[in-house]
Design a protein that fits this description.
The protein has about 325 residues and is an alpha/beta fold. It contains 10 helices and 15 strands. Helix 5 runs antiparallel to helix 10.
């Protein structure tokens, strides 16, 4: 069993990591780093008897095989480097680093220390994305022309502010990763950002990003302050289209007390629809399960195989995010290849 310690117990740690570490095959949730009395009480409520540590250093001294770093973005780099220096494998939450160059530095440090480093782009395991991947792999749609990915959340309280925050680096990390995973490397980027002034500083609260892949144009958009709740995937192609209207199903389920492995886990309730010249039909949803990420990570550590999301792939995501910032600021298309 790979003993994984969780560093941070905010919304990300509590809802998007701990339940999936606990449910993954070959993995043991070995403890949590939490400092505030409120967070410590939540850990004790959710996982009675689980060790709670005041710092990453204390957790490393107690002994773990790997750690997941899911603290605020501005703190992640130093914590990842501390874990690597201790010879411990690392899962780093997104945004993985402040920039693509900083991400490469972390990758080099992990390689030099001989530890495995993977980035938590777990939304490749979303039910709607896995279903779309099945449709694309079938070839029914023929040549893909355009991909629209919309993810609006009515969650103003969860917007990460400040220079290391913003929705582009938060939710945008996932949408960009999904597009690259489905359609390959980005050739050019064009972006618009919606800016707001917050106490912690100027922050992007919404975005539209166009990515030109080799043969597909992807249009990604999201918001958090506009009182809209929507998840839509659309693919337009030479033979027809595929459209799904989903929800953030795993997040919703875990917040209601469900856990991976229970009946109905990770299944989008509304099937997607494929439209072809001979008519329309519903496409049954594939099961999504973020615990698969941690099972794959444990297997990679044990066998020496590839981690679920290698640093090189996360760097490509950050290159697009860096280019999107430049594009929005300078009102131009940024070439990447």
């Amino acid at each position: 069993m790979l003993k994984i310690g969780l560093v941070g117990y905010g919304g990300g740690g509590r809802w998007f990591h701990a339940p999936f570490i606990a449910a993954a095959e070959g993995v043991e949730l070995a403890g949590v780093v939490a400092r505030s009395p409120e967070k410590i009480a939540l850990v004790e409520q959710d996982y009675p008897g689980l060790p709670v540590y005041p710092s990453l250093t204390a957790m490393l001294d107690a002994g773990v095989d790997a750690v997941t770093i899911t603290t605020p973005p501005e703190t992640r780099r130093e914590l990842v480097l501390e874990a690597i220096a201790a010879g411990v494998h690392v899962v780093a939450d997104k945004p993985f680093a402040p920039s693509a160059e900083a991400a490469r530095e972390l990758g080099r440090a992990a390689d030099e220390a001989g530890v495995r480093l993977s980035v938590y782009h777990q939304r490749r395991n979303d039910s709607d994305i896995k279903t779309l991947k099945t449709v694309l792999d079938s070839g029914e749609l023929g040549q893909i022309w355009r991909f629209n990915s919309i993810f609006d959340l009515d969650e103003p309280e969860t917007l990460e502010a400040g220079p290391h925050g913003g929705l582009l680096r938060d939710l945008g990390s996932h949408l960009v990763d999904q597009a690259l995973w489905l359609f390959g490397p980005a050739l050019r980027v064009n972006a618009h950002l919606d800016w707001v002034e917050l106490e912690q500083g100027r922050t992007d609260a919404g975005f539209v990003v166009q990515i030109d892949h080799e043969s597909v144009s992807a249009y990604l958009s999201a918001s958090k302050l506009n009182r809209v709740q929507r998840r839509t995937l659309e693919v337009y192609a030479e033979n027809g289209s595929y459209v799904s209207q989903g929800v953030d199903i795993q997040a919703q389920q875990v917040k209601t007390g469900m856990r991976p492995g229970t009946d109905g886990w990770g299944m989008e309730p509304t099937p997607g629809v494929i439209s072809l010249p001979d008519g329309k039909r519903e496409v049954p949803s594939n099961k999504g399960d973020y615990s698969d990420y941690y099972s794959a990570f444990a297997n990679a550590v044990e066998t020496g195989g590839e981690v679920p999301v290698p640093v090189a792939q996360a760097v490509q995501v950050l290159e697009v995010l860096d280019a999107a910032r430049v594009s929005a600021a300078e009102h131009r298309v940024v070439e990447l290849a």
